[in-house]
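Progress against Task 2.4 (sequence-to-structure conversion) is shown through the following example record, which the project officer requested during the mid-term review.
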Amino acid sequence: MKHQHFFKILLFSLCAALFAVTAHAEKPLNLDNELALQGYDPVSYTRNSPIKGMTEWQARHNGATYLFANKANLEAFQADPAAYEPAYGGWCAWAMLEGDKVDIDPKTYKIVNGKLFLFYNGFWGNTLEKWNTLAADQGEETLVTQADQRWNAF
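Structure tokens generated for the chain above:
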């Protein structure tokens, strides 16, 4: 009887520990060998011209390596990384409406309320155009809320 009680407590403790680790695990980021945004400078998006960063200007943040075009952009990122991180870990915002992780075209993007949203643009079409069409009908905040909910479920 004592052994059953001991094993129940042990099992409960292990499950609680596993839940705690899972609840605090990092979300799956869209990385290429730990490189975020396919090497594009995250700060450059806010200046209306996404450009590739250089390896001599880089920073690590939340498990990702970001490259920068110049020292000023690196310093801006280091001062406030959350302001430049892409939404949904860098996955396609349109796909996130359905809770899917789809790769992006780093040159197909939109800034919404100061946040960088990236989109797939390739053989299957330009999802930024689809996003904009649906946003015109339902409202951008509705789409962002829906995609946020799907992202938070990961």
